[in-house]
Automatic annotation (TrEMBL):
Keyword annotations: Cell membrane, Membrane, Transmembrane, Transmembrane helix, Transport
Protein name in UniProt: ABC transporter permease subunit
ABC transmembrane type-1 domain residues: 106-306
Annotated source species: Nitratireductor arenosus
CDD domains for this protein: TM_PBP2 (cd06261)
Membrane topology according to the record: Multi-pass membrane protein
One cellular-component annotation, GO: plasma membrane
PROSITE patterns: ABC_TM1 (PS50928)
Transmembrane domains' residue ranges: 36-58, 110-135, 141-161, 173-192, 237-260, 285-309
Protein family per UniProt: Belongs to the binding-protein-dependent transport system permease family.
Keyword match Transport: yes
């Protein structure tokens, strides 16, 4: 019916904004109906914000020599006999506040985790798109490399890359590039999952009508892959990235625990656990236990979010 001037259109349904569409989506409904997921998301958000704003939240700066005194070393938690109220979770062998070192350490762990996952996702998604769309010898070479890498544990590959980088950079220069080396070693250990998943999805999408239409009008293969096919295969990629974030944080902690990660002067959670492990059996258990608990809670919360996202994005699992 044509619109008549002066006609009352107040009864027309208002347009829904992005926020309202998100709240009314199946994904949000699934999220709010899972108490475990809500708690996991809240814990993850609190830990990320605490790490991001560590200079504002932490009661002390554990990496400022002017504020550290060796006389404050080995204080137990504040609620134990001999504890100091200034140090809620106690201090380590250098007199650094454990709570503050955990907050600052999470910054490094999360930064390495996010960067390595992003690096692995870029490499894996790109190679998966190329292998699935182009096929032929290119597909065979990429997938055979992926198959070979799958025969080795990720931690061994990360140790190998880390060792090669340490030998090339030298002991003095290594500490300056250690974060970059960690990101590269962990990222190169996890790209295979993205490549194999994206390749399988591309093989399905490549025969659909919109891809055939894009070819018919003369679009370039790279345009079709990244502009048309990629958005339709990102669901599984996001699930893998969420789960791999926890694995990347644990891998970084393992490398640091083995002594090939970040230096003790600016430690991550793994370095804090390694430092505290030297004093575990002498009675100073809090130096390693509290960073270990923090690492376990962070990894568990992120893993639970990944499990929920996998179920929510796969209708067959609902």
């Amino acid at each position: 019916m044509p619109h008549v001037v002066g006609e009352d259109t107040s009864g027309a349904a208002p347009a829904r904004g992005p926020l309202r569409r998100a709240i009314e989506s199946d994904l949000w409904y699934s999220f709010t109906r899972s108490p475990v997921t809500v708690v996991s998301a809240a814990v993850t958000l609190v830990m990320i914000l605490s790490a991001a704003f560590a200079p504002l939240v932490a009661p002390h700066n554990p990496f400022d020599p002017a504020t550290i005194s060796i006389l404050d070393s080995f204080y137990p938690p504040a609620w134990m006999e001999g504890g100091n109220p200034r140090f809620l979770l106690g201090t380590d062998d250098q007199g650094r506040d454990i709570l503050s070192t955990i907050l600052y350490g999470m910054r490094i762990s999360l930064a390495v985790g996010f960067a390595s996952v992003l690096f692995a996702m870029v490499i894996g998604v790109t190679l998966g798109l190329v292998a699935g769309y182009i096929g032929g010898a290119v597909d065979s070479v990429i997938m055979r490399i992926a198959d070979v890498q799958l025969t080795f544990p990720a931690i061994l590959i990360a140790l190998l890359i880390n060792g090669v980088a340490r030998a090339m950079a030298g002991p003095q220069s290594y500490d300056q590039v250690v974060l970059v080396v960690l990101v590269l070693s962990i990222g190169l250990s996890f790209w295979v999952q993205y490549a194999r998943t994206v390749r399988g999805s591309v093989l399905v999408e490549a025969n659909k009508e919109y891809v055939l239409a894009a070819r018919l009008i003369g679009l370039r293969p790279w345009t079709i892959m990244f502009k048309h096919v990629l958005p339709n295969v990102m669901g599984p990629v996001l699930v893998i990235a969420t789960i791999n974030l926890a694995l990347a944080i644990i891998t970084e902690a393992t490398l640091s625990f083995l002594g090939v990660g970040v230096p003790p002067t600016e430690p991550s959670l793994g370095t804090l656990i390694r430092i505290g492990n030297d004093f575990l059996f002498s009675g100073e258990w809090w130096i390693t236990i509290f960073p270990g608990i923090t690492l376990a809670i962070l990894a568990l919360a992120v893993n639970l979010l990944g499990d929920w996202l996998r179920d929510a994005l796969n209708p067959k699992l609902r």
